[in-house]
């Protein structure tokens, strides 16, 4: 019963495929759109420092925990817990993950829709301007209209849904493997342009010269939430991807590679944005619009800017797609395996669900602007609840599960691939991190950041 589809389950076919797919999930709008604007809202370098501590001490251990659970059970996020802890409430962590996937997709597809729209706007030259008043007006007119952003959001959902339907190995692996390196190179080009703008050094100073007075509990919670969002953890995406990983892969090494590369891409996005922010006199705390105001101005200030800008938004949309595939895969794998639905039916149900919730996120910039939950519009609310509450909460339970319930022997086996690898010493440090450091750190940061203590 428990093994009903294990034997004919698809999987990632190679070492590089596993890293590419996992990295494809981690690298996305989180790096290019969210990391810069959240850094800008929280004061720059000091925030980045806290972020780095969060990814290392909490993010990495939880990521490894999820990959281990997935690979061991070869199940979706819900059934993985059911299998390792039958008739215990741990499966609720998986259920919360399925819900998080819907809520994240709600605003994520909205932003991906803006990116799609910008490909076309860049191609027609209609967003080329070094005047940030102009670029910001262009962005407002897109995000604050009704039909346009809804149309792009729906297109995003159709495209990602279609890719998911073709299946794991063919769909995910192939797309991400080829395009990640190109995105990396293009970011490098944007970095160089941004760094050579007059006044760029203020931006570098903002990014790398920490002012420790700016660290507050809210800043720390934002950094922790971003770490979870960035690494695609706390909601079962990495459990699901881990379930497609073969037994001979080195999980801690994979997770470390992914974490480092993902952080590098985020920093590179910061280096692309902030020198330009200061050079063009944009406010660093402009919020979600920051990328869309800054990037057109940077490209407009360079030769062949339009061509590069089209390419840039195409690559960002592809990076976003890699992340969305992993988000969709959580509910889709659950419906297929738990409810025994076909891949097609599960995908359609998921896409329709996201379209419904997602349209409320998109319209919260226009006709639903007055609908506020805890003082936030729906877009910000979905973002806040997932990053700052659901993902860290999922992280606590995943860490506790692996550290205390599943325990030392299993971790040791997964770290060494049952004695094949010599990851031997590090599993002890790892145990300390997942058992003690990660859960306690998340609990304290959440309670303080949410004003509970
Ligand atoms: N990590 C992705 C990004 O940074 C977003 C994501 C979050 C993907 C959670 C899957 C799960 O864009």
Automatic annotation (TrEMBL):
<dbReference type="InterPro" id="IPR037272">
    <property type="entry name" value="SNS_sf"/>
</dbReference>
<feature type="transmembrane region" description="Helical">
    <location>
        <begin position="307"/>
        <end position="328"/>
    </location>
</feature>
<keyword id="KW-0472">Membrane</keyword>
<feature type="transmembrane region" description="Helical">
    <location>
        <begin position="429"/>
        <end position="450"/>
    </location>
</feature>
<feature type="transmembrane region" description="Helical">
    <location>
        <begin position="389"/>
        <end position="408"/>
    </location>
</feature>
<keyword id="KW-0813">Transport</keyword>
<keyword id="KW-1133">Transmembrane helix</keyword>
<dbReference type="GO" id="GO:0016020">
    <property type="term" value="C:membrane"/>
</dbReference>
<feature type="transmembrane region" description="Helical">
    <location>
        <begin position="12"/>
        <end position="33"/>
    </location>
</feature>
<feature type="transmembrane region" description="Helical">
    <location>
        <begin position="348"/>
        <end position="369"/>
    </location>
</feature>
<feature type="transmembrane region" description="Helical">
    <location>
        <begin position="90"/>
        <end position="119"/>
    </location>
</feature>
<feature type="transmembrane region" description="Helical">
    <location>
        <begin position="253"/>
        <end position="282"/>
    </location>
</feature>
<feature type="transmembrane region" description="Helical">
    <location>
        <begin position="45"/>
        <end position="69"/>
    </location>
</feature>
<keyword id="KW-0769">Symport</keyword>
<dbReference type="Pfam" id="PF00209">
    <property type="entry name" value="SNF"/>
</dbReference>
<feature type="transmembrane region" description="Helical">
    <location>
        <begin position="150"/>
        <end position="168"/>
    </location>
</feature>
<dbReference type="InterPro" id="IPR000175">
    <property type="entry name" value="Na/ntran_symport"/>
</dbReference>
<dbReference type="InterPro" id="IPR047218">
    <property type="entry name" value="YocR/YhdH-like"/>
</dbReference>
<comment type="similarity">
    <text>Belongs to the sodium:neurotransmitter symporter (SNF) (TC 2.A.22) family.</text>
</comment>
<feature type="transmembrane region" description="Helical">
    <location>
        <begin position="215"/>
        <end position="241"/>
    </location>
</feature>
<keyword id="KW-0812">Transmembrane</keyword>
<feature type="transmembrane region" description="Helical">
    <location>
        <begin position="175"/>
        <end position="195"/>
    </location>
</feature>
<protein>
    <recommendedName>
        <fullName>Transporter</fullName>
    </recommendedName>
</protein>
<dbReference type="GO" id="GO:0015293">
    <property type="term" value="F:symporter activity"/>
</dbReference>
């Amino acid at each position: 019963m428990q093994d009903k589809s294990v034997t004919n389950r698809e999987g990632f076919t190679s070492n590089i495929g596993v890293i590419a797919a996992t990295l494809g999930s981690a690298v996305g709008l989180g790096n290019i759109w969210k990391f810069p604007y959240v850094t800008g809202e929280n004061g720059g370098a000091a925030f980045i420092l806290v972020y780095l501590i969060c990814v290392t001490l909490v993010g990495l251990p939880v990521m490894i925990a999820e990959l281990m659970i997935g690979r061991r059970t070869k199940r979706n996020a819900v059934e993985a817990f059911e299998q390792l802890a039958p008739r215990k409430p741990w499966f609720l962590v998986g259920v919360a993950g399925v819900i998080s996937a819907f809520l994240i997709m709600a605003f994520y597809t909205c932003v991906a829709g803006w990116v799609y729209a910008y490909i076309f706007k860049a191609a027609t030259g209609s967003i080329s301007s070094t005047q940030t008043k102009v670029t910001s007006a262009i962005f407002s007119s897109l995000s604050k209209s009704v039909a346009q952003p809804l149309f792009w959001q729906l297109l995003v959902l159709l495209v990602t849904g279609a890719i998911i339907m073709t299946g794991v190995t063919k769909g995910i692996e192939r797309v991400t493997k080829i395009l990640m390196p190109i995105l990396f190179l293009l970011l490098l080009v944007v970095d160089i342009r941004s760094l050579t703008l007059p006044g760029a050094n203020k931006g570098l100073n903002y990014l790398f010269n920490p002012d420790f007075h700016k660290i507050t509990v809210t800043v720390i919670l934002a950094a922790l939430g971003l770490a979870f969002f960035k690494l695609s953890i706390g909601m079962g995406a990495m459990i699901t991807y881990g379930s497609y990983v073969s037994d001979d892969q080195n999980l801690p090494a994979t997770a470390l590679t992914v974490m480092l590369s993902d952080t590098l891409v985020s920093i590179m996005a910061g280096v692309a944005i902030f020198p330009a922010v200061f050079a063009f006199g944009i406010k660093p705390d402009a919020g979600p619009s920051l990328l869309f105001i800054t990037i057109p101005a940077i490209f407009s200030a360079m030769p062949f800017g339009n061509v590069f800008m089209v390419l840039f938004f195409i690559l960002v949309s592809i990076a976003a797609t890699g992340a969305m595939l992993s988000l969709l895969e959580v509910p889709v794998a659950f419906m297929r395996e738990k409810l025994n639905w076909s891949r097609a039916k599960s995908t359609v149900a998921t896409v329709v669900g996201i379209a419904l919730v997602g349209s409320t996120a998109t319209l919260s910039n226009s006709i639903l602007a007055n609908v506020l939950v805890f003082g936030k519009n729906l877009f910000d609310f979905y973002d806040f609840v997932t990053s700052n509450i659901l993902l860290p909460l999922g992280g606590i339970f995943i860490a506790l599960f692996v550290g205390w319930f599943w325990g030392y022997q299993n971790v040791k086996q997964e770290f060494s691939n049952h004695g094949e690898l010599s990851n031997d010493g590090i599993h002890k440090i790892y145990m300390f991190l997942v058992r003690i450091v990660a859960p306690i750190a998340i609990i304290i940061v959440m309670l303080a950041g949410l004003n509970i203590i």
